[in-house]
Amino acid sequence: MAVSGADARTPVTKTKWNVAGEEMCPHRLVLEHVTSRWGVLVLIQLLEHPHRFSELRRAIGRVSEKMLAQTLQTLERDGLLHRDAKPVIPPRVDYSLTDLGREAAEQVRGLAEWTERRMGRVAEARQAYDEGRAAD
Fold it and tell me: Which residue in 9, 95, 6 sits closest to 52, CA to CA?
């Protein structure tokens, strides 16, 4: 289905990723959760092995308890991770990936690895952009 763009002569193909409407909200929300600053780091970290809350916080670094707790709860609600609370004193809670979470984490890790490999080109592009802007 073609939708007219800014230029009525140039049709824009309607896809599930560029539709503005209610039907896209669930996709975008999950994408936002998986690719959020802390979501990415949690998923990648849990690929290695299950972690306790404090282990995750130390491994990730610079994340507040509140943000980590919110991120874990969101990813658990989306079915990406499992929270295993053991009835011991002091309480012990382990977080691990579900099969769905492992699948998402592998995708995110691929993007993170690509970013690491291409950081030199990104730095060059940033420098060229900044120099071009300074010349204006």
Answer: 95
Residues forming beta bridges with residue 83, ordered by sequence position: 95
The answer to whether the beta carbons of residues 93 and 111 sit under 8 Å apart is no
Spatial distance between the Cα atoms of 95 and 38, rounded to a whole number of angstroms: 15
Distance CA 127, CA 97 (A): 39
Q: How far is CA 135 from CA 29, 74, 121, 122, 126, in A?
A: 40, 45, 21, 20, 14
Q: Is the dihedral of CA 61, 62, 64, 70 positive or negative?
A: negative
Other CB atoms within a 10 A radius of the CB of residue 96 amount to 14
The tokens of 22 are what? Answer: 């209610």
Q: Walk along the chain (136 residues) and give the pLDDT tens digit of each residue.
A: 444 444 445 555 556 655 555 555 888 899 999 999 999 999 999 999 999 999 999 999 999 999 999 999 999 999 999 999 999 999 899 999 999 999 999 999 999 999 999 999 999 999 999 999 999 8
Residues 97 and 60: their CA atoms lie apart, in Å, by 16
State the Rg of the chain over Cα.
20
